[in-house]
Automatic annotation (TrEMBL), chains A, B:
Transmembrane parts of this sequence: none
PROSITE patterns (alphabetical): NUDIX
Organism listed in the record: Podospora pseudoanserina
Protein known as: Nudix hydrolase domain-containing protein
Matches recorded under InterPro entries: NUDIX_hydrolase-like_dom_sf (IPR015797), NUDIX_hydrolase_dom (IPR000086)
């Protein structure tokens, strides 16, 4: 049985600076390389030494070992430099796959994700984001209904057994990555249609944007990719109340079944480690915002609320 | 006109660690002394040098200049040591007033506040908390109603012109410090009766606990006390929806008037700096949780949500 703080720590597992004994934080942060974009003094990613060593760096990148920095250069070609930068990343990842530098790097997919906080439009394949330790962006929607007595019940899907990441675990009703050029709100509307066949107009009318959940995670075996990578992340969280007549059914192969669960059932499943960790964090935030977890029933309340909203290590807006 | 991020920064104004240029954080943190309690390896407060210099330390305290530490000792007398520790703080503050060491230290009041995260029950006068840089605890309740068209309106009080702190500024409908031995929920129920004459049963039934807002503030002139003191703080936030028939009126001399304000009016007042900074932060958190501030209309959204929930520099639960 995990405590609520332990559930949050499963996502947010990178050490924090500490006033009296800073060893854990220093030991974790010192070996990391910083990833920089052109004309930008602030970093956008963390690379670990073994990634820097194995990556087949092209001339578009400059490594500075003394300060542990990787810079994407401004003039790798004769094109407009922003386009050239985007191509330089694609080219590097093609080469990485050709040389099989990272056997657990997923297949190339068309979906691209933005480098959050960049001063220009630059994207990177989803499966490669962790290698650069760039902030990942997702949108998660908690869907609930109320019984005739006013009790909240949650529509919770269970992931399929054949998923490469977090098989058989519980998830949010609707969740997905925010792609390049997409806003979080448009992402959740799109995913609500794709994953739960929810009517677009109903979602646009009734959904409530309710903040973010942020963390700094170091990847483990369950995530399915390379282990020990830096994964700072932000999830934009949404709440949707639906009528009692709405029934959720799996739309695609990702989900084996939808369950309608009470607060106590969700809480127990979280404690037993049945939820995908990021989804457990989003449920925890929901429970805090709606008064199910309080200062009176949770000794770690203040710590939990802060840990659910960790300040990310990199800039999250262009900040011109 | 302040941006939303600037509004949050007014409360949360102590620098953060920075990956590429840590000067501001180091310069702010290095001169601080740490305050320790007996049998506890983790600190509970930050004292600035000028406070350490002017404080008429008694033999109950030990100063270690090499590591900038102040320790409250375990055996200052022959009583049970926890009682003796409480008395040692009282005695020090009596002496401080007798010697007029801090001219802007408020009068002695009966109200005591807990040292948050201590492993035993220990309190300190409210007006002296800032001198030790201990985490301050409050409970704030945002009260709103809905027009016949479903639009939210907020009951917002304006502080009286003769208040020593933040005169004439806008405030939360109900707010107060969480006293020693009181839970945040009982605090908000008590304050709702005292400050807004709200019916206790209605508050207990309808109030929703909705998380916390946390910050690390360095005091300025407007706070009314000594300037440059360290004020880490946590506010337990509550939402209360009331019917349209409920009308708020000032109960005591603290408030000159209550206003029923729309979302836009509250937003404008925040931008113009009309709110007490901590109350602006609580309103901002409300606007985030209820979908008025979103990723689409606020470029600093992710940063703002994290800054509203800063991880406090000290332990917030006993952590046995």
């Amino acid at each position: 049985m995990r405590t609520n703080l332990e559930i949050v720590q499963e996502c947010d597992n990178f050490p924090y600076p500490n006033l009296t004994n800073n060893t854990a934080y220093t030991k974790a942060i010192e070996p990391l390389w910083l990833f920089f974009l052109p004309d930008d003094l602030e970093p956008h990613g963390f690379l670990i030494q073994s990634v820097v060593d194995r990556m087949p760096w092209t001339p578009s990148f400059r490594l500075i070992p003394e300060s542990k920095q990787v810079h994407l250069l401004k003039y790798p070609g004769r094109k407009e430099w922003q386009t050239a930068c985007n191509e330089a990343i694609d080219e590097l990842l093609d080469l990485t796959r050709a040389k099989k530098a990272f056997p657990r790097l997923g297949k190339k997919r068309d979906e691209k994700f933005p480098i959050v906080g960049a001063k220009f439009d630059i994207g990177i394949e989803r499966s490669a984001m962790s290698l650069f330790g760039i902030i990942g962006q997702g949108a998660h929607m908690t869907v609930y209904t109320r019984t005739s007595l006013g009790e909240m019940k949650f529509w919770i899907p269970r992931r399929n057994a054949n998923k490469s990441t977090y098989p058989n675990m519980l998830d949010q009703a609707v969740a997905g990555g925010v792609a390049q050029g997409e806003t979080p709100f448009e992402c959740i509307v799109r995913e609500a249609g794709e994953e739960a066949a929810l009517d677009e107009e109903v979602v646009r009318r009734d959904v409530v944007a309710a903040g973010t959940v942020t963390w700094f995670n170091v990847s483990d075996e369950k995530a399915g990719g390379e282990v020990g990578l830096m994964n700072p992340g932000v999830l934009y969280v949404y709440d949707l109340e639906v009528g009692r007549e709405v029934v959720f059914k799996p739309v695609d192969d990702d989900i084996q079944a939808f369950h309608l669960m009470s607060v106590d059932e969700v809480r127990d499943a979280m404690r037993n480690g049945e939820f995908k960790p990021s989804c457990a964090a989003v449920m925890m935030d929901f429970f805090v915002r709606h008064g199910f977890i309080t200062a009176e029933n949770e000794v770690d309340y203040v710590e939990i609320v802060s840990r659910l909203h960790r300040k990310l290590p990199f800039r999250t807006s262009p900040g011109f």
